[in-house]
C-alpha cells in the first residue's frame, strides 16, 4: 500500500501470496499545515463474497450502478457501448486566487515546486510530469467545472466519482468539499450523474478523536446533502458509495455503526480485494491501478458474487520523489495512448463488470490524468469516443475548450457572458453547431 501525504496510493490484492495480506506503506511527508488527504491501498488477502443480497431492493449479483434518471430533459450522448463509464475526479487543486491564502495549493506544488516560476515554453513549474492543456487551475472555478463536465459528456462519460474528503474541519478538507460541490451542482445541467468516493483515511490524517463518530458525521452529511439528489448514482434503489480502502474503518462493525444514521443502506464498494473489511455491509469492489496491467486480468477472471466495477487508466508515473513527497512506488508506461486503450478494452470485454471507473480524470501527482494535457492533447478522450461508439469527435472537444478560452477572455462582460451561457446550453443539449455559431462570432 502507498500512503503518501496528499497522494493516491495504488495497489491491489494480487500481491496477497507474497505479503500475506499485509498493508505495506511507503510514507511520504508534508510540512506543517499541509493536507494529508492521500490515498493508498494494499492487498488484504482472500475475501468473502460480501454484499450478495445485502442491499434491500438491489438486484442480486453484479449489475452496474445506474445514473439517476434523465436529469430533467438534458439529453445524454448516444453510444454503442452499454457499459457505464465514470470519471474519478480530484477536487483538490487551488490557485492563489482560490486558495484563500494567496498561495498555490499543495497539489500543484508538493514540497518544492513553485508555479509562479516558469519552466520554459510558457509552462509554470508544477509538481507533475504532465501539464494541463489549460494550465494549472482551481478545482472550484465555475468555468473550469463547465469545461470538464462538457468534455466528459462529449467523450461518452456517464458521471463523476468525486474523491470526497469527509467533514473534518482540518487541513484542506473544507476546501475540497466546497470544490466537490461546485462540480456536483453542475452535473445535472449536463446530463451527468455523480457519486462519492469516501476517503476514510482522512479520519486518521485529520486526527479525529473517535473514528466512528467522525464516520457517522460523514454519513449524515452524505445523507442530508447528496444521496437524495435526483442524479446521484444508484445500484438498484440504493445510493452508490465507494471507499478508497477502507484504511481506517476496517471491520464490518465499523460500517454497521456508520450506516446506523442512514434510512437506507448504501451500496458500498471497497477497493479490490478489500470486501471482507466491509463484510455484510458491502456490495462489491472496484479495480484500481497497480504495477502492471495483468492485475486487471486477475480481477476480471476471478469468481466473485458481488458488484465488480472495472478500471481503465492511462499509465502511472508519479512525481513524489521529484516533488519531495517520498518515493515513487512503481511506473506503468503510458505508451502514448496505448495503455489507456488497452485497459479500457479489457474492461469493456470483461463479462464480470458492467461499469468502468476511469482512474483518473486529473491526478497529476501520479500521472493518471485523462483530461487534456500538453503531452497527450485530447488523445485519451478521443480513445473514449472511439471505443464507446460516441458519434462526436475532436471538433466538439475543441469547441468546449474554445468556450473556456472565451469565458476567460471576456471576463465580466455581462452581454458576452450571456452569449457564452447560451453556447453552453447548446452544448449541453447536443447542439454543437449552434454553439459554434455563437463562439465563432465572439
Description:
This protein is an alpha/beta fold and 442 residues long. It has a single domain, classed as Glycosidases (TIM Barrel). The protein contains 14 helices and 11 strands. It has an 8-stranded parallel barrel. A two-stranded antiparallel ribbon has the order 9-10. Helix 12 packs antiparallel against helix 13 and helix 13 packs antiparallel against helix 14. The protein is globular and about 60 Å long.
Shape summary: globular
**How large is the count of helical segments?**
14
CATH topology: TIM Barrel
As residue ranges, the low-confidence spans are: 1-71
Protein traits:
disordered N terminus, TIM Barrel, 11 strands, single chain, 442 residues, globular, alpha/beta, two-stranded antiparallel ribbon, 32% helix, eight-stranded parallel barrel
Write the layout of secondary structure elements.
Elements (H helix, E strand, L loop, with lengths): L15 H4 L64 E6 L16 H4 L32 H14 L3 E6 L8 H15 L5 E6 L3 H4 L5 H15 L8 E2 L2 E6 L8 H8 L7 E5 L10 E5 L7 H8 L5 E6 L3 E2 L2 H4 L7 E2 L5 H12 L5 E4 L20 H10 L5 H17 L3 H15 L3 H10 L1
Parallel strand pairs: 1-2, 1-11, 2-3, 3-5, 5-6, 6-7, 7-8, 8-11
Antiparallel strand pairs: 4-5, 9-10
Helix pairs in contact: 3-4, 3-11, 3-12, 6-7, 10-11, 12-13, 12-14, 13-14
